[in-house]
């Protein structure tokens, strides 16, 4: 009978069609058995005459045959149409309950159970997509928090250094009014940076959402501001910064805070690996601004040249807790948002060299 069912391609039938087919086949089988039971009863009657036990046996046999037919039909219907898809759905439910969505559900049937399995697979697939989206959002938020925590140190260090400088020399009247105003202006810019950081932490969900606000800026005050931040960073580790500029006296259209964030990351990395000195070179062109930071340290290894701008790549960082391997990756993303790029290389005389390119048109 199983071969007959397979021959009829029962998997292609709906549940109702399969039930009707099994019912008809079971009915024919039961009627055939009952017919044989009547033949047997007739033979017994002819042999033993009219006796009560023959009639009772016939009635019992007919009832048992009908009951057996119903049970057999139910068992066959369950095995052929319900057992396998229910097992698939049960196993899938257990996997989902265990937060395991890395699997697929398939069932080769065109009936309602096949449709149910297909719907369940669609649900699993959507759950997997949603879970991955949530995971990526959580990772982006974690990454951004690490970036903000790292990049808050520089403006805080600048504010602290300038405040100490004012406290030390202002009472003794060793500072000119111009110098005091210059220090206050620098502190004001870094306070604005802190405010922007705080606002961004509340509104940005991922690094790619960082907005770019371009404004006209003279290169001389911009590079002076960058040099001041670089000296503050280098002073903390007893290093020196030397800067140079090509085509200085011009006006460019940039996002000052993105430039500063990228620049300070590059300088922080350079100071970390430098033996004594970090060199900064600004090159201004018609449509781009390039900032190259070179140190006199050991330079990048072959592996680091390939992976330094990947997220969470640490290499041989002297203090793994100092940074989460995000510096150059952040610089790369921000440069690309600013219509530029990031290039990691070794200097001609050794030492690491990183060039940040920003679109200014």
TrEMBL record:
Residues 147-361 form the Histidine kinase domain. Keywords: ATP-binding, Cell membrane, Kinase, Membrane, Nucleotide-binding, Phosphoprotein, Transferase, Transmembrane, Transmembrane helix, Two-component regulatory system. One of its GO terms (molecular function) is phosphorelay sensor kinase activity. Coiled coil: none annotated. The keyword Membrane applies. Its EC number is 2.7.13.3. InterPro entries: HAMP_dom (IPR003660), HATPase_C_sf (IPR036890), HATPase_dom (IPR003594), His_kinase_dom (IPR005467), HisK_dim/P_dom (IPR003661), HisK_dim/P_sf (IPR036097), HssS/ArlS-like (IPR050398), Sig_transdc_His_kin/Pase_MprB (IPR008358). GO terms for cellular component: plasma membrane. It catalyses: ATP + protein L-histidine = ADP + protein N-phospho-L-histidine. It is found in: Cell membrane. This is histidine kinase. It comes from Paenibacillus ginsengarvi.
């Amino acid at each position: 009978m199983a071969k007959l069912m397979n021959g009829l391609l029962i998997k292609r039938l709906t549940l109702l069609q399969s039930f009707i087919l099994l019912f008809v086949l079971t009915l024919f089988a039961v009627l055939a058995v009952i017919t044989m039971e009547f033949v047997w009863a007739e033979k017994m009657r002819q042999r033993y005459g009219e006796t009560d036990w023959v009639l009772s046996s016939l009635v019992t046999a007919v009832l048992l045959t009908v009951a057996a037919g119903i049970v057999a039909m139910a068992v066959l219907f369950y095995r052929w149409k319900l057992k396998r898809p229910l097992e698939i759905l049960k196993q899938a439910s257990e996997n989902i309950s265990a937060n395991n969505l890395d699997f697929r559900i398939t069932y080769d049937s065109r009936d309602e159970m096949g449709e149910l399995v297909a719907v369940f697979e669609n649900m699993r697939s959507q759950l997997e997509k949603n879970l991955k989206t949530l995971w990526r959002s959580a990772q982006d938020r974690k990454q951004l928090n690490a970036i903000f925590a790292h990049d808050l140190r520089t403006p805080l260090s600048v504010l602290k250094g300038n405040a100490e400088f004012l406290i030390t020399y202002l009472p003794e009247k060793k500072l000119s009014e111009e110098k005091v105003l210059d220090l206050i202006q620098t502190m004001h810019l870094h306070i604005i940076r802190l405010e922007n950081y705080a606002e961004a932490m509340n509104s940005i969900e991922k690094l790619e959402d960082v907005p770019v606000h371009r404004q006209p800026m003279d290169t001389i005050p911009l590079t002076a501001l960058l040099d001041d931040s670089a000296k503050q960073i280098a002073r903390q580790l007893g290093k020196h910064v030397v800067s140079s500029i090509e085509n200085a006296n011009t006006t460019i259209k940039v996002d000052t805070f993105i430039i500063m964030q990228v620049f300070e990351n590059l300088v922080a990395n350079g100071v970390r690996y430098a033996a004594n000195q970090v060199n900064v070179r600004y090159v201004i062109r018609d449509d781009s601004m390039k900032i190259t930071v070179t140190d006199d340290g050991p330079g990048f290894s072959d592996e680091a040249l390939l992976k330094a701008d990947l997220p969470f790549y640490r290499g041989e960082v002297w203090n793994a807790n100092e940074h989460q391997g995000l510096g150059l990756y952040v610089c790369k993303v921000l440069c690309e948002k600013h219509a530029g790029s990031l290039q990691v290389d070794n200097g001609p005389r050794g030492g690491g060299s990183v060039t940040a390119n920003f679109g200014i048109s």
